[in-house]
TrEMBL record, chain A:
Signal peptide: none annotated. The chain crosses the membrane at residues 37-59, 71-93. This is DUF485 domain-containing protein. InterPro entries: DUF485. PANTHER family: INTEGRAL MEMBRANE PROTEIN-RELATED (PTHR38441), MEMBRANE PROTEIN (PTHR38441:SF1). The keyword Protein transport does not apply. Pfam families: DUF485. Keywords: Membrane, Transmembrane, Transmembrane helix.
Automatic annotation (TrEMBL), chain B:
InterPro entries: Na/Glc_symporter_sf (IPR038377), Na/solute_symporter (IPR001734), Sodium:Solute_Symporter (IPR050277). Belongs to the sodium:solute symporter (SSF) (TC 2.A.21) family. This is Cation acetate symporter. Keywords: Cell membrane, Membrane, Symport, Transmembrane, Transmembrane helix, Transport. It comes from Arthrobacter echini.
């Protein structure tokens, strides 16, 4: 039987050697692609967020500098946080669709074909 | 939500005047219609609730769009709506800072947590955390932190419901408010008991649509009265308040070095807390695939982002059209900014609609929290620890249903007891506890191969304990005039949010516990978790039948 978090069934390990899968070129490529995108991106948005928070916290005069009419740097930087969040979201989705999903799907199908009994529930549900 | 600083969410119950604006009868009728419609939908949705996966995870049958809308419904609590609008109306720019923290936090969920979690777990957060570590200790710790976060969040919502709804419906005595809390509690128990995750999800979807549509209409209305020009709106807000500083940061948190540090601490808890809130995490199990989990977060980010942009306009709109003085003098104080704005714009009808939306908001959030807590108790503690897995799904769901009733009754009692308490304190605790107790272990177990049981247990208990201890020793509990225990003073810790200490501490303990332990966890399980989390193997079959 497949994955059951309560009592890991003995059959699960016997049917599929996950350490072997973990060592395959294909899986390592998937992991590399995933991490090389999400880690730098996470570092970037956290730095940008905290730079903004620190400016709002400690540089009041700078943030209050008017730009257009009553709209000041603070409002613009705040709205830019929204923009950057939306942009990173779309960027990640497009990256994942192009670079992650195809490899993940291929690996998944290979694994399920190699050991159908380990992953497919005869009752037809998710295992 | 946490945003409100300590002053915002506290509804001054004793000072509520019976002269509320609008018509309580109209408010009650609109709310009654909402309850009637959602109950019918919940009943219909619950007809095919058969298995544990149906009850906890809605049979994994929702689409990304539906789930994303439900996440928005789960996340945008009444405090987000009333609290942030009020905070911006009174404190100007400092209120807007919260909106940003709440939104940016979703990137942590999108990039690092949502899909991997969807692929490795089944029903609860503990499923993921205990996947490759020793089951019992890790599962118990994860269930305890889940219950702690849910309970504080729940208590805050229930106490808020009493104050808020009394304001909106014109009930101002303590008995009437207790009655309101009881009604909210009983309704919530009914939704969750009958509808399970499916019913709860539909309530959240309906509520999210109503809330976002209501905020959108008001935003357009406010902008229309200022020539669709943000600068004109800001100008009007400056004119009404007579203080140009309202468009810049610092009014609330710029007072002293300590308040600034406090804000930094809050910002940290906000950005790291969201991706570790158990009721948000559990929503990822209601979709069939990791791709749908990703779509859910994307939908949630767009909806939540749009909503927080509306709050900017609504907050400055309330500041311009009503003015901080009138808002603070109104029953409910800062929380009344949004209802007052609705009354100013569209009279009794819009006020009635917005009030009903606010009530619906509380109900939906409370239902989401209850099902999360019940699932965690039944699945993690009862089935896995007490019965050691020797229980069938029916038995587990039966226990989950009973737990719903117990949690419902507890939160009614707690809500009645906590009336007039500092609501923001309880919500802040929930966010800080989530970020301290859960996030380090979630990230370590997904990304750090060597992470082991001792690290997980140290990090979870250390994070939970330090967050709660620091809040107990903070000015929120004692030592100030706004404290929970005004007479005593044992406030050794000067900040009202513990995040800046407890979050790094929990990360440190996770690392320290791991390197100091000689135990090496099963490399097979680590490999299995990593392969499953990235490929979704074994977790994506629901689409095949």
């Amino acid at each position: 039987m497949g994955f059951h978090p309560v009592e890991p069934p003995a059959g699960s390990g016997a049917a599929v050697d996950f350490t072997e899968v973990q060592q395959t070129e294909q899986f390592r490529e998937l992991r590399k692609r995933h991490r090389s995108f999400v880690f730098p991106m996470a570092v970037f948005f956290l730095l940008w967020y905290f730079a903004y928070v620190l400016l709002a916290d400690y540089a009041h005069d700078f943030m209050a500098t008017p730009v257009v009419g009553n709209i000041n740097i603070g409002i613009i930087l705040g709205l830019l946080q929204f923009v950057s969040t939306f942009v990173i979201t779309m960027w990640y989705v497009s990256y994942a669709n192009r670079r992650l999903d195809p490899i993940a799907a291929e690996l998944r199908h290979e694994l399920e074909e190699a050991a159908p009994e380990a992953f497919i529930d005869p009752a037809g549900g998710t295992k | 939500m946490i945003s409100l600083g300590s002053a915002v969410l506290r509804v001054p119950l004793q000072t509520v005047e019976s002269t509320s604006v609008g018509s309580p009868v109209l408010n009650i009728s609109i709310f009654g219609a909402f309850v009637a419609i959602t109950l019918v939908i919940v009943l219909r949705a619950s007809r095919n609730n058969k298995t544990a996966a149906d009850y906890y995870a809605a049979g994994r049958s929702f689409t990304g769009g539906q789930n994303g809308t439900a996440i928005a419904g789960d996340y945008l609590s009444a405090a987000s709506f009333l609290g942030i609008v009020g905070a911006i109306a009174i404190n100007g720019y400092d209120g807007f800072l919260y909106s940003i923290g709440f939104l940016v936090a979703w990137l942590v969920a999108l990039l690092l947590v949502a899909e991997l979690l969807r692929n490795t777990g089944k029903f609860t957060m503990a499923d993921v955390l205990s996947f490759r570590l020793r089951q019992r200790p890790v599962r118990i710790a994860a269930a305890i932190t889940t219950l702690a976060v849910c309970f504080f969040y729940l208590l805050a919502q229930m106490a808020g419901a009493g104050g808020l709804v009394s304001l909106l419906l014109g009930i101002d005595d303590r008995l009437g408010q207790s009655l309101v809390i009881t009604v909210v509690g009983v309704l919530m128990i009914m939704y969750v008991l009958i509808g399970g995750m499916k019913g709860t999800t539909w309530v959240q979807i309906i509520k999210a649509c109503l809330l976002i549509a209501g905020a959108f209409i008001m935003t357009i209305w406010v902008l229309a009265r200022h020539g669709f020009n943000l600068s004109t709106l800001l100008g009007a807000a400056i004119e009404t308040s007579g203080n140009p500083a309202i468009t810049g940061p610092g009014l609330q948190y710029g007072v002293s070095a300590l308040t600034r540090l406090d804000f930094l601490s809050l910002a940290l808890a906000l950005v790291l807390g969201t991706a570790a809130l158990p009721h948000v995490l559990m929503r990822f199990y209601t979709v069939p695939t990791a791709k749908e989990a990703r779509r859910s977060v994307v939908w949630a980010i767009w909806l939540i982002g749009a909503f927080y942009l509306f709050t900017l306009v609504l907050g400055y709109g309330a500041s311009a059209l009503i003015g901080a003085e009138r808002i603070q003098a109104a029953p409910g104080g800062v929380n009344s900014a949004a209802p007052l704005l609705a009354y100013e714009l569209g009279g009794s009808i819009l006020l009635g609609l917005i009030s009903a939306v606010a009530f619906a908001t509380i109900l939906a959030v409370v239902a989401g929290l209850t099902i999360t807590a019940a699932a965690s108790f039944a699945h993690d503690i009862y089935a896995s620890v007490i019965r050691k897995g020797r229980v069938d799904a029916d038995g587990e769901v039966k226990v989950a249903r009973r737990t719903v009733i117990v949690i419902g009754l507890l939160s009614i009692a707690g809500g009645i007891g906590a009336q007039g308490q500092n609501v923001a304190f309880l919500v802040a605790l929930a966010f800080a506890v989530a970020a301290s107790a859960n996030l380090p272990t979630i990230l370590y177990s997904l990304f750090w191969k060597r992470f082991n049981t001792q690290g997980a247990v140290w990090s979870m208990y250390g994070g939970l304990g330090s967050a709660i201890l620091l809040i107990a020793l903070s000015p929120v509990v004692s030592g100030g005039e706004k404290s929970m225990i005004p007479g005593a003073d044992f406030s050794v810790f000067p900040l009202s949010n513990p995040g800046i200490v407890s979050i790094p501490l929990a990360f440190l303990l996770g690392w320290l516990g791991t390197v100091l332990s000689r135990t090496v966890e099963d490399p097979m399980k680590q490999a299995e978790m990593e392969v499953r989390s990235l490929t979704g193997v074994g977790a994506e079959k629901a689409t095949d039948h």
